[in-house]
Amino acid sequence: MEQYLEYALYTASVLGALSLALMLPKEKRGLRFVGPLIGAASVGLLWLFLASSSFWDGRDSGLADWTFLYYYIFSGIALVSAVRVITHTRPVYAALWFVMVVLASAGLFLLLSAQFMAFAVVIIYGGAILVTYMFVIMLASQ
């Protein structure tokens, strides 16, 4: 079963890279609408495979059962936002999507009871790096 898990991870990685390459902004539209479909299918199939396999059986994660629901919500938000950071054509909106990635990552840290890391990620990335990035965008657009 572990061998199938390895192949599923490789297949999901290749399909994810293919979907991201199809979603990148281009002058011609081409197959850009197929990218999100391939990406959602690969992530969904990987999550279904992990949920249905015996990968988690017998492993004590130390987390309550309800935290896995929030894990999937926060990781889904982080994945979608990260894809929009890369594929958005306007830098200001890409920065706002990056804020969503930072907040979803902070939520994942909170699920692991790492409150300091969650606040550090928000303060460092949201407070320092993104503000500097916004100043560069505002000054360069003149």
Question: Can you walk me through this structure?
Answer:
- This protein is mainly α.
- The protein is built from 5 helices and no strands.
- It starts with a helix and ends with a helix.
- 9% of the residues are buried.
- N-to-C SSE string, H for helix and E for strand: HHHHH
Strand percentage, roughly? under 5%
Described by the principal axes of the CA atoms, the overall outline is flat
How would a textbook summarize the main sheet? none
Helix content: over 70%
Structural class: mainly alpha
Helix run count: 5
Radius of gyration: 18 Å
Topology:
Layout: H1 2-23, H2 34-52, H3 66-87, H4 91-111, H5 115-140
Helix pairs in contact: 1-2, 3-4, 4-5
Provide tags for this entry.
5 helices, 142 residues, mainly alpha
Task: Produce a short descriptive summary.
With 142 residues, the chain is mostly helical. Helices cover 77% and strands 0% of the residues.
